[in-house]
Amino acid sequence: METILTVIPADKSAAVKTALLQAFQTEEPESIEILSGGLSTALVYKIGIRGKHYLLRLVMEVNAMNDPKRQFTCLRLAASAEIAPKVYYTSVTDGISITDFIYTQPQTDKTNLLHELATTAKKIHELPLFPSFMNFLEGIDLFIVGFKASGLFSATATAELFALYHKIRTTYHWQEVDLVSSHNDLNPNNILFDGAKSWIIDWEAAFLNDRYVDLAIIAQSYARKPEQQHLLLKTYFDAEPTDYQKARFFLMQQVCLLYYGLMMFRLVTDHVVTDTDLSAPSPEDFYALLAGGQVSLNNAEGQLQYGKVLFNQLLINLRSQKFEEALELLS
């Protein structure tokens, strides 16, 4: 049988026992199981105490992005609104949180799911303001510098993409009215449906940000078709979206494609040599491979391929007439 001493890193075991003692008046769970999935460096465990399961999360790398104080502040605010699972314990010093464990079920009604996600995004954005961290676009600027310095691709392979992206950078301006509490990573790994409602987990990337970031990330997984994107925006704004709102949404979609592409490439920098070929499957084909298990985002090969898929889709979008029209609306 697994115990804290056998599965928890030695430098965290005492702190975990303290957490369990304060939350549940016991130092040892009845069961403990490490969970996998996602790209976070945190260690996540399913623990059983008195016949109920909870989620134990350990922040293993503390830095500006992985800041337990900001993360747990956002988590507690979201939990108080029943957006995130109930919180039983947090320690900024030790980087530990304990929340309810969510037993997931498939959500088969995609229209209802999209309605719920739009409503959930709005609820997140109406929470008391999260701590500030960075201007999202300035953060991406730093990622671009790092990407170019890595030498992963030749400069010519991405020259057109970055030249076109620069048009967004000079046109899309931060507006106070759009700065809201944001999760910033509303992908399927972080949205858990329990059969009655969806719960949002993993708040390590949460901070004050542009409202269109969450909407664009939702659309990346759940609203790829124009009619789905219209429904997402109409539900979120509780009205027909204006041309200006649609333009900001479209441009932020491109920003987020770039962001996730850069994130994928950061993960593989140490595993591959300079690559001059950005060719990749279509998004539809790639997602089919992912769903079928032929590709995994848990290894460098899948991460590299996904980064290429995102960059290719981004370049197609940046070459479109819709892109020029969106820039014109915001200029």
From TrEMBL:
<dbReference type="InterPro" id="IPR052077">
    <property type="entry name" value="CcrZ_PhaseVar_Mediator"/>
</dbReference>
<feature type="domain" description="Aminoglycoside phosphotransferase">
    <location>
        <begin position="32"/>
        <end position="250"/>
    </location>
</feature>
<dbReference type="Pfam" id="PF01636">
    <property type="entry name" value="APH"/>
</dbReference>
<dbReference type="InterPro" id="IPR002575">
    <property type="entry name" value="Aminoglycoside_PTrfase"/>
</dbReference>
<dbReference type="GO" id="GO:0016740">
    <property type="term" value="F:transferase activity"/>
</dbReference>
<keyword id="KW-0808">Transferase</keyword>
<protein>
    <submittedName>
        <fullName>Phosphotransferase</fullName>
    </submittedName>
</protein>
<dbReference type="InterPro" id="IPR011009">
    <property type="entry name" value="Kinase-like_dom_sf"/>
</dbReference>
